[in-house]
Amino acid sequence: IKWGNAATLTPRQKKIIDKWLKRKGLNQFGDREGKRYKMSPYVKFDGQRGTMVDPYDRVLEKYPHLPWLHRSKKHYILGEEERTPNSEAWLDAESTLSLIDKRRFALSRLLLNRIANCTRTLHKKRKPEVELHMLLVAFIMKPGMSQTLEEEKIKKSHEGIRYVEPEERCYEIRATKYTRDALCPVKIVSFGEVPVPPKLDKLDRVEMGLTSEENSESDSRAERDEEIRGMDIRKTEEYLADSDFRREVEYGAAEFFDSSSTQAGMPTFAAKKRIRL
Question: How far is 132 from 116, CA to CA, in rounded Å?
């Protein structure tokens, strides 16, 4: 389709331009609505003479790149499986946080904890091709801390110091990528600190349709069974200090045990409660 001048525009092309002007809040000349002109916008002066100009010629002269054609874009809200570590969104988020670190001028650094939300917009006839709107939750790693949380936990355990999770910060970031290539660098458009959103529990996930109620119940049951199995009564102070209770557990509790409340033959708190009765 050719967009030469107003005389060659078809009614369909004029309708496309009119819709775009209305959507952008512009008048028929492509200027902001309500603009006051010193001279008539219908007349174009060339020296001392003036010629009549069609409004569509004014618009085509003002917008030679034809922005009303650049409407082919798609929005994608990334799911949880697309926001996991080592995914493309995760790599983009880490690159973005490294750029924010350079602008913070602080001794601490940001370590990505989770991607609370991420929306990706793809453009076909426009550069940059990718727009990102991310909500990132990051740990504030102070000077002297390890590169990862796992290394920091191991370091604290070797030093005999109780591990305390670092402070969290949340950033709302708008960024772009010139192409859709996964290795294309990220460029920050704007960013700002916002309150840290809470993590979704299983009930929230069921209500939002992120997981089924059956899966949620099975997960809860598995965690509860794992917790029960981990409660070894032989590690309690009462078992170590009271010889009578220890003898009672060793010789009288076996008949009360079942497979759901023991782990490798170990008595549990559930079995202890039955024994005391």
Answer: 13
Per residue in 22-73, pLDDT (tens digit) is 888 888 888 888 888 777 777 776 666 767 788 888 888 888 878 777 655 6
CA distance 106 to 209: 40
At 220, which amino acid appears? S
Query: Which two structure tokens, joined as six digits, stand for 68?
Result: 């009303």
* Cβ atoms 140, 149 nearer than 8 A: no
Question: What does residue 191 show for φ and ψ, rounded to 5 degrees?
Answer: -155, 155
Cβ burial, residue 272 (10 Å; 0-12/13-18/19+):
buried
What is the per-residue pLDDT across 148-192, written as a single tens digit (0 to 9) for each? 888 888 888 888 888 888 899 999 999 999 988 888 899 999 999
**Nearest-CA neighbor of 130 among 69, 67, 76, 193?**
76
Look up residue 70 and give its two tokens.
């650049």
